[in-house]
Design a protein that fits this description.
Elements lengths: L5 E2 L5 E8 L18 E7 L3 H11 L4 E3 L6 H4 L2 E4 L6 H10 L3 E5 L6 H14 L3 E4 L6 H11 L6 E10 L2 H5 L7 H4 L2 H4 L2 H11 L5 E7 L17 H4 L22 E7 L5 E7 L5 E9 L2 E6 L6 E5 L11 E4 L8 H17 L7 H18 L6 E2 L5 H15 L9
Parallel strand pairs: 2-3, 2-5, 3-4, 5-6, 6-7, 8-11
Antiparallel strand pairs: 1-2, 8-12, 9-10, 9-16, 10-11, 12-13, 13-14, 14-15
Helix pairs in contact: 3-4, 4-12, 4-13, 9-12
The protein binds nicotinamide-adenine-dinucleotide.
Length: about 400
């Protein structure tokens, strides 16, 4: 490590962190200084003038703001948060890993399996920490469902069904790069990778075979198109943008689907389904998990909502046999973002194991990318190619050796 390391108030060495890509999601870099690991944001990188101006507004003048990652990045940073568009993830993260800079890479890991495998190979070879921002594993509703399942509340999990109502879809995904296959591949990958990872986590296994159907049914017909130069999503977001056919300023190119449905075979008779619609009036996710001794379902996915469990035989009963309030504070996923950032920084500093798994992040991309292939091929099923055994072994060895590190050791 270079000489520019900063010292925290308690005299502890603070990790020097950069953020690469200063769009709307770069806000997670605000959490860097507020976790239990001493760390400080020192650099922000964005190729656009608007992005650099946002960086100055968001992070203040103490953070150096530049247009590109320089050659000496390994001397300047211990860790980087990569919040660039999905198709750039591998190209941005791999040189950082090669330079020894630990990477928090936003989900999805990449938009192709080839890029995922290159990322995994680089992480295994260099030993530099790589972490994928699957923050939903730190959302209270998900953690509570996982704990209930692990405690045997519904027996052995046999099937998981997730319906995702993306009520803000027009504003979130159809007014910028998210609407284009070349940047995201599919919204089954870009948006669903969260839920695919959650379903794999809840089931304790991942997708082996997938099939899907879907279409661009509403937004493709909207004629009002335009670029939003210099803006990010919160600048154009409004609940007043309703109904969907009345949307304005949609991205000039739209070639992703706005409705999609996929079926997954997770092996040994365990199955899952995921349905995503981008023009519903309401926004939330509803999971149903069916086991051999009952089923659970969430109503709402933030505090104020509940998880209900049915574990006795009877006819229709909305209330469930057990009701568990969803914990946490606030309506969005900020709390999960703080926990996720804390886990990443702790991992970089101490090698502590993480709830988030690199192989699972690849599994989520595999399911989403192959579902998109199936959807665009009349629903013909696709099989997920397994990761090479030697790569799994190298990744396992890497996580075991890093979890044996106990003292805060920023990379040197
Ligand atoms: N985990 C979550 O809940 C969550 C939520 C939102 C977004 N995301 C992810 O965060 C990432 C960013 O999404 P966003 O909504 O902030 O996009 P955005 O368009 O608002 O911002 C992207 C920024 O990256 C910059 N950029 C583009 N190419 C770059 C490069 N090569 N190097 C450096 N900067 C570059 C752009 O100029 C822009 O400022 C995506 O991968 C998205 O999937 C995750």
């Amino acid at each position: 490590m270079g000489d520019a390391r900063t010292t925290g108030t308690a005299g502890t060495t603070a990790l020097r962190v950069g953020v690469i890509g200063v769009g709307q999601r770069a806000e997670i870099a605000q959490h860097v200084g507020s976790t239990d690991t001493p760390a400080r944001l020192v650099l922000a990188v964005d190729p656009t003038e608007a992005g650099r101006a946002r960086a100055v507004r968001s992070f203040g003048r103490d953070v150096r703001v530049v247009a590109s990652v320089g050659d000496g990045i390994g001397d300047e940073l211990d860790a980087a948060i990569v919040t660039t568009p999905d198709d750039t993830h591998a190209a941005v993260a791999i040189p950082l890993l090669e330079a020894g800079v630990a990477v928090y890479l936003e989900k999805p890991m990449a938009i192709t399996l080839e890029d995922c495998d290159r990322l995994l190979d680089t992480a295994a070879r260099t030993g530099t920490p790589l972490y994928v921002g699957h923050n939903m594993r730190h959302m209270s509703v998900v953690r509570q469902m996982k704990a209930l399942i692990d405690d045997g509340a519904i027996g052995e999990v046999k099937s998981i069904w997730c319906r995702h109502f993306v009520g803000n879809g027009g504003d979130f995904y159809f007014k910028d790069w998210h609407a284009e296959r070349r940047h995201v591949n599919s919204l089954l990958l870009q948006k669903a990778s969260h839920d695919l990872d959650v379903m794999h986590w809840l089931a304790g296994r991942s997708t082996k075979r997938v099939t899907a159907l879907g279409a661009l049914t509403v937004y493709g017909a909207v004629q009002d198109r335009g670029m939003h130069e210099g803006q990010v999503m919160p600048d154009w977001f409004s609940h007043d943008n309703w109904p969907p056919e009345a949307q304005t300023g949609l991205n000039p190119v739209i070639d992703v689907e706005d409705v999609s449905m996929m079926l997954m075979d997770l092996g040994d008779g365990v199955t899952a389904s995921y349905e995503q619609c981008h023009f519903t009036p309401d926004y939330w996710r509803n999971y149903t998990v069916i086991g051999t001794r009952g089923r659970l379902e969430n109503f709402g996915d933030t505090p104020g909502g509940v998880i209900r469990i049915w574990n006795r035989r009877h006819d229709w009963q909305l209330a469930g046999d057990v009701e568990v309030p969803i914990e946490g504070e606030g309506a969005g996923h900020e709390q999960a973002d703080v926990r996720t950032m804390a886990e990443f920084l702790r991992h970089v500093a101490t090698g502590a194991p993480t709830e988030i798994s690199l192989i699972a992040a690849r599994d989520a991309v595999a399911a989403g990318a192959l579902a998109a292939d199936s959807l665009r091929d009349g629903g013909r099923p696709r099989d997920v190619p397994p990761l090479p055994a030697d790569l799994i072994a190298r990744l396992d060895a890497r996580s075991q050796s890093s979890s044996s590190r106990t003292t805060p050791v920023p990379r040197s």
